[in-house]
Amino acid sequence: MPPSDFVVSERVSAVRATVVHHQGGPEQLTFGEWATPAPGPGEVLIDVAAAGVNFHDIDQRIGLFPRDLPYVPGLECSGTVAAVGAGVTGVAVGDLVASLVFGPTGSYAEQVVVSVDSVVPVIDGVSAEQAAAVLLQGLSAHYLTGSCYPVSPGETVLVHAAAGGLGRLLTQVARLRGARVIGTVSTAEKEEVARAAGAHEVIRYTEVDFAAAARELTGGKGVDVIYDGVGHDTIDGDLAALRSRGTIVLYGQTSGPITSIDMRAGKPGSPRLVMPMIPDYIATREELMGRADDLFAWVRDGAITVHIGQKYPLAEASVAHADLEKRASTGKLLLIP
After folding, report:
1. Could you give the 3-state DSSP secondary structure of residue 242?
2. 3-state DSSP call for residue 205?
3. Residues 182, 155: Cα–Cα separation, whole Å
4. Do residues 101 and 72 touch, judged by C-beta distance below 8 A?
5. What is the pLDDT of residues 149-204, one digit of tens each?
6. 111, part of any domain
7. Which of 107, 181, 272, 309 has the smallest count of CB within 10 Å of its CB?
8. For 154, what's the count of Cα atoms within 13 Å in the CB-facing half-sphere?
9. CA dihedral over 322, 328, 334, 337, signed as positive or negative
10. Is there a single domain that holds both residue 121 and residue 35?
């Protein structure tokens, strides 16, 4: 095996990847070749085994979070270290790792170069697919329930989209922290999924007013905290479902951006709104490693279950995006090069 400071040649190679050349619908995801450079100092080249699909990828594709075109999307992956740049420590060629991907080339590719500061070793007992499926959403569930609003035993948590990939993990982690979890879902099938994830109560928001139902389930008090990745369609109901001095953690806006909040609609007083971004809660390698250590240990020990809803060939990333946008899946979606 090459030493840990092994460096491949400076030759730029072409790999197969899914590329966005124009902003728009899923059809803008095209499969072709993309140049992958050798890793420079402090960088790692990964042979991608699996890449996670996230709503943020869709938001970038449609232009909600614009970036320079063309680009390869994807924020997370797992795979084997193929080469490392000078000065890299902590990982070596041949290691199974998972990584956040914030560079110009995302994870929808056969290979990707990332900063070693974004890479974490995958422990024994956790597979490559599990690692890719849990990394970004699992880290998010960790800081959302541990830092944005530190959930305490006995508190009541409301999780929107509790049958989705992050919703399932939020439900499980909030239960680990001792909370009572109320989930919202759209269908009877998704209610079963949310209950299987550990939700104590489930509200079908397509059939009842979720805010009124949440207040009824809390004896009129309201919930302590709401984890909301939906945004536009739920924010007014969040205010009505919240207890006095409760907290809304708004971590996504899948139903569209919130352009205004009518505070008069809120029944409780003095609500607190937190709008977290992952770089602020994984600001250092030490913070990343600490959260990842907890996360992978939970997976290995069976404390949380990673549900992979669907796996797609890398060339079918457009199908994966369409399915995610239509809410046609539950659990995590993966692309397999």
Report:
1. strand
2. coil
3. 11
4. no
5. 999 999 999 999 999 889 999 999 999 999 999 999 999 999 999 999 999 999 99
6. yes
7. 272
8. 0
9. negative
10. yes
